[in-house]
Design goal:
Blueprint (H helix, E strand, L loop, with lengths): L13 H16 L6 H8 L3 H7 L3 H5 L3 H13 L7 H17 L2 H13 L1 H25 L6 H25 L6 H16 L37 H14 L1
Helix pairs in contact: 1-2, 5-6, 5-8, 6-8, 6-9, 6-10, 7-8, 8-9, 9-10
């Protein structure tokens, strides 16, 4: 006579259980109407367990950003001098995309919730600012000693974040349908073309013609600057100086 044993279901980690419970209540009751006590009651844990993982109710909406920011910082810190700076920060931004794309359903739910709650939008802006600062600090180090190095670092970092977020939100508005990576690559291609080396891979597809001078790889190269007809003269002069500085 054979006997069989039933394997008990594996419980999700407590952190994941809290996030799942929180979003279930946010969707059923609304964010403002849900308390921490409600969340821990549904998750079957105590308040101390909640605050062990999340400093506030806002943090449970963005449970993965701290880890992603740490990954981005480590990725940039591991960059060697051979890495083209703009390409490197574009690759760093793709780490954020990967985080969102790993769980499209959760990402879309969070996007919708954040749009409805002003406090969460403010929180999200602070998170985005921290990503931008991480990119800018890396670029400042790479551009140290160059004319307008700090300005260039801050502008490029802001452009990378703007391009990434524009494409990411477009994907989220489509309920997570389509190829998020291709959408973000296309947007980052604009940044690569304007500020860095030639766009490679998917980012090159559909990328615009260079508005500003690209990098000069050999000192004997001819520098050709292509600019919009309505570009202000100061911008044209600045880009000519930058191109010759790279040369």
């Amino acid at each position: 006579m054979s006997s069989s044993s039933t394997v008990p279901p594996v419980k999700p980690p407590m952190r994941d259980a809290l996030v799942t419970a929180a979003f279930r209540l946010f969707l059923e009751r609304g964010y403002e109407q849900t308390t921490v006590d409600d969340i821990v009651a549904l998750a079957g844990v105590g308040r101390r367990s909640f605050f062990r993982y999340f400093p506030s109710k806002e943090d449970v909406v963005f449970p993965d950003h701290e880890g992603c920011l740490a990954d981005m910082t480590a990725f940039l810190a591991a960059s060697g001098p051979e890495c083209e700076p703009v390409a490197r920060v574009c690759d760093a931004a793709r780490l954020v995309l990967r985080m969102y794309a790993e769980n499209p359903t959760f990402s879309v739910q969070r996007y919708r919730l954040t749009k409805r709650v002003p406090g969460l939008r403010a929180y999200e802006l602070s998170v985005v600012w921290r990503y931008e600062r991480a990119l800018a600090e890396y670029l400042r180090d790479r551009y140290a000693g160059r004319p307008d190095g700090t300005l260039r670092a801050d502008v490029v970092a802001a452009a990378v974040v703007a391009a990434h977020n524009n494409a990411l939100r477009s994907w989220l508005r489509s309920d997570g349908e389509g190829d998020a990576a291709a959408t973000v690559d296309h947007a980052l291609g604009y940044v690569r073309t304007a500020f860095g080396g030639p766009a490679a891979g998917p980012a090159a597809d559909g990328a615009p013609a260079a508005l500003f001078g690209g990098p000069v790889e050999h000192p004997d190269d001819v520098v050709v600057l292509v600019s919009r007809r309505d570009a202000p003269l100061w911008r044209v002069v600045q880009e000519i100086e930058t191109a010759f500085g790279r040369a």
